[in-house]
Structures are given as C-alpha cells and as structure tokens.
Write a sequence for this structure.
C-alpha cells in the first residue's frame, strides 16, 4: 500500500471546503472530520520553531498499567509492550484507547477509523501496520504515532493528543497550538481528564457486576455530544478499569 496519498480537499479559512489541487508535500492523515485534512510533511527547522508553552507530564513512564485492565489480558500486555518499546506511557495509551474505542477491538468509526486505537488506514500503513484489525499491530501503530508526535512537539502531551486527533499538520498550521476545532479541543480535554484520573486509584468506585457489564457495552461518546461521566471502576478481582456511565 502506498504510504502517501494526494489530498483532494483543502479547508478554507471560512466555513465549508473548496476543491483544489494540493502541493506534493501534503498527505492524508488521521483526522476527526469527514473526508481528509492536509498534512505537511516537510521537515520543521528547529531554529525557526516558535517559542511556546510546553505541557509535559511530570510523571515517569509506567513499567505497567498499575493495576488497570482493558478486560483482556492480551491487550493489556500489548499496551505495556508497545509503551515500553516506543517510550510512551502505557497509561497514556490506555487513556487514548478508552476514548477511541472503549477497548473494543472491532470498533469502526463513521469516518473509517478502526480498531482499539482507531487508526485511519493511511496512518496504519504509514506506521507499519499490515493488519489494522490485529490488536497487537493496531496498538503498536498507535504507540508509534504517539512517539512520532511527542518527538515532533518536544514532548508536549497536549499537542501530541491534538495531533493524534487532528493530524500533525493542523497543529503546525496553527503555530504549535491546539487547533481551534471544537472536537479536537474536546478530545484533548477528555483524554487529559482520563490520564489524570488514572493517577489517583483512591478515586475508584466499586461497581456491581451488573453495573460493570452495562457500562462495558457502551460505545465512546462522540466528541460533539456531551460526555457521560467517566469512572474508575474497581472490578470484583480488585483490578481497575475506566468505564463510562
């Protein structure tokens, strides 16, 4: 599969889109809007990079999920292995996965994002995924993309999350800021909230088996819809899991 695609749609500064030819240094990437977004692939000159506030996590990378589970021990191990291999906190990957798919391996979005980490096919191919439905490959692709974004944005977790949702080109376009797209800003807010929640196991709520089963059936709340409450649930076996209710 080719690793780059010609972009046919450029979003103008005003509402709506205008069809136009695009330069060869643009490609399609993971984006939470219909159709596609332009992604500039030209290298960024560090000397011309504008000064900006860096939002870094103050926590060290976790060697494990710290008692959290997706409900599938194989998926848990894939998160830990990919996190270690790519130097991305497994708990950050876990937070992203809960927002993206609520831990459902066969999840597919209306825009075509697929699997646990909701990779768009071009993004999956770009980061070496040959079977987007394979949980191990899907998680590895998401972890590689996050590593790429963290490197590109100097470890700024908020910008990396914005890039995961909107494409790195959108973050570059707006001067190393979270793009002014309501869905992207809500995406960054939700995952930052989840990531913070995971740091406080004492906040866990004990769910009955029936409550847990009902919560696990729920799909992710669309970014343009008011989000249900997210809880850190303590399972009957003592492990922890993020659930929406």
């Amino acid at each position: 599969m080719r690793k780059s695609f010609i972009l046919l749609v450029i979003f103008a500064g005003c509402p709506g889109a205008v069809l136009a030819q695009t330069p060869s240094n643009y490609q399609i990437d993971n984006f939470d809007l219909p159709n596609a977004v332009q992604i500039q692939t030209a290298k960024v000159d560090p000397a011309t990079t504008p000064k900006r506030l860096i939002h870094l996590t103050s926590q060290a990378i976790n060697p494990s999920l710290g008692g959290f589970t997706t409900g599938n021990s194989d998926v848990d191990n894939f998160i830990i292995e990919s996190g270690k291999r790519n130097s991305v906190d497994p708990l950050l990957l876990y937070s992203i996965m809960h927002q993206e798919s609520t831990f459902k391996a066969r999840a597919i979005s209306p825009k075509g994002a697929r699997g646990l980490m909701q990779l768009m096919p071009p993004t999956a191919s770009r980061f070496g995924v040959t079977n987007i439905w394979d949980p191990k490959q899907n998680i590895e692709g998401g972890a590689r993309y996050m590593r790429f974004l963290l490197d590109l944005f100097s470890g700024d977790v908020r910008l990396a999350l914005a890039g995961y949702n909107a494409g790195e080109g959108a973050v570059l376009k707006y001067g190393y800021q979270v793009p002014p797209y309501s869905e992207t800003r809500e995406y960054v807010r939700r995952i930052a909230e989840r990531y913070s929640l995971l740091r406080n196991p004492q906040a866990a709520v004990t769910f009955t088996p029936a409550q847990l089963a009902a919560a696990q059936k729920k799909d992710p709340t669309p970014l343009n819809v008011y989000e249900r409450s997210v809880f850190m649930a303590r399972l009957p076996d003592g492990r922890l899991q993020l659930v929406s209710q």
User: Anything to note?
Assistant: Confidence is low (pLDDT under 50) at residues 1-60. The helical segments are 73-86, 90-101, 121-126, 135-152, 157-166, 168-173, 182-197, 209-216.
